[in-house]
Every structure is written in structure tokens, then in C-alpha cells.
Specification:
This protein is mainly β. The protein folds into 4 domains: 164 residues, Glucose Permease (Domain IIA) (Distorted Sandwich), CATH 2.70.70.10; 165 residues, no CATH class; 114 residues, Chondroitinase Ac, Chain A, domain 3 (Sandwich), CATH 2.60.220.30; 87 residues, Sandwich (Immunoglobulin-like), CATH 2.60.40.1220. It is 6% helix and 42% strand. Strands 1, 4, 6, 7, 8, 10, 11, 13, 14 and 23 form a 10-stranded antiparallel β-sheet that branches. Strands 15, 16, 20, 24 and 25 form a 5-stranded antiparallel β-sheet that branches. The protein is flat. The N terminus is likely disordered. The structure holds zinc ion (ZN).
């Protein structure tokens, strides 16, 4: 096991603690916008399923602000996707770094033309391609794109990343001397302890009341008595800078017990594949239920993230004596503005409180595979699935819903994180061959639903998910519905720049969407959530046209809609 962890550490932790912030070139990268830099999010901020991997730079709540190359280099990659970055440009620089600009609306004319030609040639709006160094060289400050709100963006902004070109490691841009004044130290909103005799998924956080005295946070009771001989701590905290009133994630935290460093993290860099360990680095339940980010000052057994210091200690605090123990927590930002929390802890057996574990729960171990079977389901988790021992409740309930063709399989719930995809096999009710072709597997996790086609193995359907919740088989025999937005069959487009349709499915989601004109020529529609938008260009000249839209859902039900319109 030790060897296993060591290998992972080598794989994941490229240079975290040796990569001293001073080694990065200072001022090499300029602000990619021509307005004073204000952030909406910093590097390492908590998100569900990932740390924020760059800076979100504010664009005055507007789109189409000019975006400039942060330094000399060449456009090395272009990505167009419905979610994630939306429209994105990667620029590779001669000094070993690559910058990324996301949620863009459009690129500078030469690159935009290259992209659109390729999209029409491939008949695909989605793109992800690399470019050689000689094709689109750029100089520092050159106009490269218009900012926007494309992809998984909730409002206009520029997402900006700096990566190590060789390793692909995402680096903290604020360690490169970005033009941002910051004299404000991190702020503490809450301090909590966890009873570590139990799994993190059994206990609830116990809040410690804190006050700020002479610039130092301390507990309202000088010596806090806790009812467990082994505990861990969690902090709710945020950072600020002088450019705006926005609040951000905290760069660095260190925990000292009796003046000995027990635990530390520094958000210098992440590799994308490890970013999901954010779910192990905070109180996940508090995050998804209350939107409160309590960050652990301890390492759960299944957390293999590299940003944590390679100390022998996992940050759990042993209080198994009569002594009072001195606790100091130091928080700091990239500019070394520092906040201290200082207090004392003592174990008091009389305060001990026991937690009960549901009698029907399966106890899933960390770092080993777990297989669970019920009458109509078989679920297998691999050894990286869980961050801590987990009492998992799995049971079945019947449903009268007419489209449901299996029991509902309850696999824990949305408040428990799972790291790797797990496999689920669900047994279907008796179905004809035709019906079987229209069955999908649905996972409901909290308010979100994921629908997958799955693979039949006899009367069992196999699929996989990366969230816990309720799984069932549904029969979907209804195709998607296409609705024109602000126009109708027979409309004339005069000054409108775009043509938009909404396309949704009742059970699953849209698996494919194609639009063609009367001569069969393909028309490119950009995608964002349920909306598909064509921007008028040379591919639709003035005159009368017939537009044919074909949309298919995950189950394979297709709809073909035809509309007539005139373009003036
Ligand atoms: Zn972002």
C-alpha cells in the first residue's frame, strides 16, 4: 500500500513544494484585457468536482471586450465545446508555458476564418485541434479574441489559465506577478472540529465560536473541551484583494499543534485529473447542501492530492492525554498577507458523543474495491471510489411511473462524493426487443439527472456514473421537441443576425442535432444549454430557403422538422 501511494504521489505531485513561487518569471505575462484587472474567481477556489484551475477575469459584465495575448508565442490549440471552456484559445510561449483563454465569443479574423472553414469542412461545430508553430504566431498584446460567455459560464468573463507546456500542470497565475494590488489577509468565517473516531461520512461538523481580537482570531472560550481523543479541524475562509469587493479562495493554510507543523496546503499547481480530489478536501455534504465551503486541515485516507505537504501527519489531532494543546492555524495569500487563528484544545471524556451507523448500511472501505448486490442491481466501486470508510445504504423501491421499467435503486445520495466512475447493472422488467432498444439508465443525484444508453447483458443493463443517487431504467419512445425562438415557419429575416431554436427531450438529452438547407448543405449551429443558434453568413445567401432540422435523443428517437424562411 505504501508503495502504491508513493507511486501516485510521484505521478501527481510534479513540483508542488519545490516550485517556489519566486521561480516563475514575474511580469512576463500581461493582463489579457486592456482594463484594470478585477477577478471574479482565483486559482484553487472550491468548485464541485474540481478546484478552479485559473483566474476568472471580470469583463465589466459585458461581452466582446478585446482579449490580448499575454506574451509572445503562437496559437497551439483551439477548442470549441458546448460546456467547459466554450470557445477557447491556447497560446504556447517560448519559455515553457502555455496560456489559455476561455468562454470567448470569437477569434481574431485570420484564426476565425481558419476555424469556420474547418467547422464547415468537418460539418462539426465542436472542435479540438492543435496548430503548428508557424501558422498563427502572436506577439505580446496582440488582439486575439473577443470575450464572451460561451460554454459552462454563468455570466460574461474571461477564464485565463497558465500551464506548464511539458507536463500540462495548471499553475497559479497569481504567482506570476499579475497586476493586482492585495493588502488584505484571508478572512475566517467559521471554525469546526470533527470526531475522527468515526468516518468523515458519519460525523457532523461541530462549530467553535470565534472572535477577532487584536488582529488574531481566537475561540470565545480560551480552552475548548472536545468529546473525542482524536479530532480534525475545518475552516470556512475566504480571501480578498484591493481591486474589488469579490471574495476568493485561500492560497495557503498551515496547522500547528503545540508549535509543530501537522498539516499544510499551498495551491501552487494542479493536474486536471487530480482536481476532483477537491471533493475530499472539504466537507462535501456542507458544500452541496448548504453551499458552505469548510476546508479540511487534514487528509482523508483516500485523498491523493499533491498540494498537501508531504508530512508524516495526516492532520488528525491526538488529544489522548490530560494536557491542554496549543493550536495555531496560519492562513496566507500569494502576497503573504497573513491571518492567524490561535486557541487551545483539551479532551473531555464526559463530553463524548456517539454516532450511530445505520444497521442496514454496507461498510465500504477506502483503497479497496467494494461490490454490492440487491435483487435487481449489482454495483461495483473500484479502490479509488471513496475517500473515507463509508456506511452506504443501498435498497430498492417499486415505482408506478409508466416509463419506468425497473425498480428504483437507491445508492446512497448526492451528499456523498465518489471519485471514480462506478458500474451499475440493473435488471429490467420483461420487454420486447423493440422496447429494449429504447431503454436508458437514469441517475438522479439531488436535482441533477444523468441519462445514459447503457449496454444490455441479457435482461440486465450496464452503465456507469460518478455521482451517487437513485438509478432506474426508463423507456423513452418520444423524440425531442424543436421550438423556434422569436421566429416561426414562413418568417422573413431582415436585420436579425441569428436564428435560434430550442431543442429538448422529455426523458433524456439531445445526442445529435443537424441542420441543412434545401440543397442539402450543412448549416453550423452553435450550442449552449438547450439552445442552438445559427449566425447568418455566406452559407445562407439572400432568398427563400427551406431549413431541415434533425435531432435525436440518447435513446435513438429522431425528429425531423422542416421550416421555410426568407433571408433578405
Ligand atoms: Zn473560470
Amino acid at each position: 500500500m505504501k508503495k502504491f501511494i508513493l507511486t501516485l504521489t510521484l505521478l501527481f505531485s510534479i513540483t508542488c513544494f519545490t516550485n517556489a513561487q519566486n521561480n516563475y518569471p514575474q511580469g512576463y505575462f500581461r493582463n489579457p484585457l486592456n482594463i484594470p484587472m478585477q477577478l471574479a474567481a482565483n486559482f484553487g477556489e472550491l468548485r464541485t468536482d474540481h478546484f478552479h484551475m485559473g483566474l476568472d477575469i471580470r469583463t465589466q459584465a459585458r461581452e466582446n471586450l478585446p482579449v490580448h495575448a499575454a506574451a509572445d508565442g503562437y496559437v497551439s490549440r483551439v477548442k470549441i465545446e458546448k460546456y467547459g471552456y466554450g470557445h477557447a484559445i491556447y497560446i504556447t510561449h517560448p519559455n515553457g508555458y502555455t496560456t489559455l483563454y476561455g468562454h470567448l465569443n470569437s477569434f481574431y479574423p485570420a484564426l476565425e476564418k481558419y476555424l469556420r472553414d474547418k467547422q464547415y469542412k468537418d460539418q462539426s461545430w465542436e472542435q479540438d485541434f492543435e496548430l503548428p508553430a508557424n501558422l498563427f504566431p502572436v506577439t505580446k498584446g496582440q488582439f486575439i479574441a473577443n470575450s464572451g460567455n460561451t460554454g459552462g459560464s454563468q455570466g460574461p468573463h474571461l477564464h485565463f489559465e497558465i500551464r506548464d507546456t511539458k507536463t500540462g500542470n495548471n499553475l497559479n497565475p497569481l504567482l506570476f506577478g499579475m497586476p493586482l494590488t492585495d493588502h488584505i489577509a484571508p478572512i475566517v468565517y467559521g471554525l469546526y472540529w470533527y470526531d475522527r473516531r468515526y468516518s468523515a461520512y458519519t460525523v457532523s461538523p461541530q462549530s467553535l465560536s470565534i472572535i477577532k481580537k487584536n488582529g488574531i482570531y481566537t475561540t470565545t472560550t480560551p480552552v475548548v473541551r472536545v468529546g473525542s481523543p482524536i479530532i480534525s479541524l475545518g475552516v470556512r475562509m475566504q480571501d480578498m484583494n484591493n481591486a474589488s469587493s469579490f471574495k476568493f479562495g485561500v492560497y495557503h493554510a498551515a496547522l500547528y499543534v503545540d508549535d509543530v507543523l501537522q498539516f499544510e496546503f499551498k495551491l501552487n499547481d494542479f493536474l486536471y485529473p487530480t482536481s476532483r480530489y477537491v471533493n475530499a478536501s472539504m466537507d462535501y455534504k456542507r458544500w452541496v447542501v448548504n453551499k458552505q465551503g469548510i476546508q479540511y486541515l487534514s487528509l482523508l485516507p483516500g485523498n491523493k492530492l499533491s498540494v498537501f505537504s508531504p508530512l508524516d501527519s495526516d492532520g488528525n489531532i491526538s488529544l489522548n492525554d490530560d494536557q491542554t494543546h496549543k493550536i495555531k492555524i496560519v492562513l496566507s495569500d500569494e502576497k503573504k498577507n497573513t491571518t492567524t487563528i490561535s486557541f487551545s484544545l483539551k479532551y473531555d471524556e464526559a463530553l463524548q458523543k456517539d454516532y450511530s451507523i445505520p444497521a442496514d448500511a454496507f461498510i465500504c472501505d477506502t483503497n479497496s474495491a467494494n461490490n454490492i448486490k440487491t435483487d435487481n442491481a449489482s454495483i461495483s466501486f473500484d479502490s479509488n471510489a471513496f475517500y473515507d470508510a463509508l456506511p452506504l445504504r443501498v435498497f430498492e423501491t417499486a415505482s408506478a411511473y409508466s416509463k419506468q421499467v425497473s425498480p428504483t435503486i437507491h445508492i446512497g445520495d448526492y451528499t456523498i462524493p465518489v471519485h471514480n466512475d462506478y458500474n451499475v447493472m440493473v435488471k429490467a422488467a420483461a420487454l420486447t426487443g423493440n422496447q429494449k432498444n429504447k431503454v436508458v439508465m437514469e441517475l438522479k443525484s439531488g436535482s441533477s439527472a444523468t441519462v445514459k444508453k447503457g449496454v444490455w447483458q441479457g435482461s440486465w443493463m450496464l452503465s456507469s456514473f460518478n455521482e451517487l443517487g437513485n438509478v432506474r431504467l426508463l423507456i423513452d419512445e418520444v423524440p425531442p421537441v424543436v421550438t423556434p425562438i422569436s421566429w416561426k415557419d414562413g418568417s422573413t429575416f431582415i436585420s436579425q443576425k441569428t436564428l435560434t431554436v430550442k431543442c429538448v427531450d422529455d426523458v433524456s438529452r439531445i445526442a445529435s442535432f443537424t441542420a441543412t438547407l434545401e440543397d442539402g448543405s450543412w448549416l453550423m449551429f452553435a450550442k449552449k444549454s438547450d439552445y442552438f443558434t445559427y449566425t447568418f453568413d455566406e452559407h445562407c445567401p439572400a432568398g427563400k430557403h427551406t431549413l431541415t432540422i434533425t435531432a435525436m435523443d440518447v435513446a435513438g428517437n429522431a425528429i425531423v422538422e422542416t421550416y421555410n424562411f426568407t433571408k433578405q
